[in-house]
Design brief:
By secondary structure, the protein is an alpha+beta fold. Helices cover 44% and strands 13% of the residues. The chain is built from 16 helices and ten strands. Its EC number is 7.1.1.-.
Length: 385
């Protein structure tokens, strides 16, 4: 301020003269955190300086519970950590036990498992294809997503009896054979969903507000992907070309290489992650069709192996990993020759993926936090186990 004599006086600068960090807690009960995840942010004005994911609010000790359940019962525990990928979660456990037993699974079971795993992948991805735009202010896509999910949920429920926790895998195959006429209904559901998938290209990717909120936001470098063990569509959106279905085939994926497309992007931003998820959904529908074609040509036969009344895995250890919808899931099984695992260590995709937030968020605006967080496509139960 200047007076009539020309002298200058500084008035009331106070605390604004220097930067003051503020600690902000997002969650654990917050709509954008997909459950009870807490983010501890250190802010400098509107800019995030440090970010720390605080986890454990949903921890239920599943790995310890594995040790007190026999090999039939642990399937119930395994399918619950990522509640959007229950069938895929079951697969890792039964594949590990079957490997310990040296068990060959009937061909019909192998192809049916592959089919149901890809339908489960579509169900998982549709949830995020609908909820991610919702977090950025667009409510319409989530209604489309739930309509498509309902069509596929109907066929999954018909075959297994469950809508979320299918409990359809068994050591040695599947619980029971497919219902009469189910394959035709499944093929119709897949075709119906595919016919409406372009809504995400037009309604979401074609929306300039969505692109403005996601393009160039939340860059994840390939080196960071490797350092933190990030996998799945998030890693592939940063140019890391890795997919177990192609690189270490299990189930029937070795015979599906012609239909399998590993979707990658180089941009590594929120938009690239959404695009990878969308294209992977298209490819999962194509893989489901290929499995249905192969099942139609198989001769009638068993869907599982007959097991002893008390199932014991021989002494030893093994590691089975699968390309789950959200990334790599691994099961390290140690057996002492008993009917329960001595140790069963779970490596879940979301646990590794969410750690990358400590690298992604610093330097970004608070307004972009929800866009970055949502683009990691995680399930909190998959983090906490």
């Amino acid at each position: 301020m200047t007076d009539s004599a020309g002298a200058s006086t500084t008035v009331s600068v106070g605390g604004g003269a220097e930067s003051t960090d503020m600690v902000l807690n997002i969650g654990p009960q917050h709509p954008s955190t997909h459950g009870v995840l807490r983010l501890r942010l250190v802010l400098d004005g509107e800019v995030i300086r440090r970010a720390e994911p605080v986890i454990g609010y949903m921890h239920r000790g599943a790995e310890k519970l594995f040790e007190a359940r026999d090999y039939r019962q642990i399937i119930m525990l395994a399918n619950r950590h990522d509640w959007l990928s229950a069938f895929s979660n079951e697969l890792g456990v039964v594949l590990a036990v079957e490997r310990m037993l040296g068990m060959e699974v009937p061909e019909r079971a192998v192809w049916t498992r592959t089919l149901l795993a890809e339908l489960n992948r579509v169900l998982n991805h549709l949830m995020f294809l609908g909820s991610y735009p919702l977090e950025l202010g667009g409510i319409t896509p989530v209604f489309h997503a739930f309509r498509e999910r309902e069509e596929l949920q109907n066929v999954m429920e018909e075959v297994s009896g469950g809508r979320m926790h299918y409990m359809f895998n068994r050591v040695g195959g599947l619980k029971e054979d497919l219902p009469a006429g189910w394959a035709g209904r499944a093929r119709h559901a897949v075709a119906s969903v595919r016919s409406r998938m372009d809504v995400y290209d037009r309604l979401v990717l074609g929306n300039e507000i969505f692109r403005g909120r996601t393009r160039g936001v939340g860059y994840l470098a390939p080196d960071t992907v490797h350092a933190y063990g990030v996998t799945g569509p998030i890693a592939r959106a940063s140019g890391v070309d890795f997919d177990l279905r192609r690189d270490e085939p299990y189930l029937a994926y070795g015979e599906l290489q012609g239909a399998l497309t590993v979707v990658t992007r180089d941009e590594g931003d929120c938009l690239a992650r959404f695009e990878c998820l969308l294209e992977q959904t298209h490819n999962a529908l194509a893989l489901a069709d290929a499995c249905l074609d192969r099942l139609a040509g198989l001769a009638p036969g068993p869907i599982n192996q007959r097991l002893p009344k008390v199932l014991k895995a021989p002494e030893g250890h093994t590691y089975a990993w699968t390309e789950n919808p959200l990334g790599v899931n691994g099961y390290y099984l140690v057996s002492r020759g008993e009917k329960t695992p001595y140790r069963l260590k779970l490596r879940s995709a979301s646990f590794n993926n969410i750690q990358a937030l400590t690298e992604l968020l610093p330097g970004t605006q608070v307004a972009d936090m929800v866009a970055i967080l949502g683009s990691l496509f995680f399930v909190v139960g998959d983090i906490d186990k």
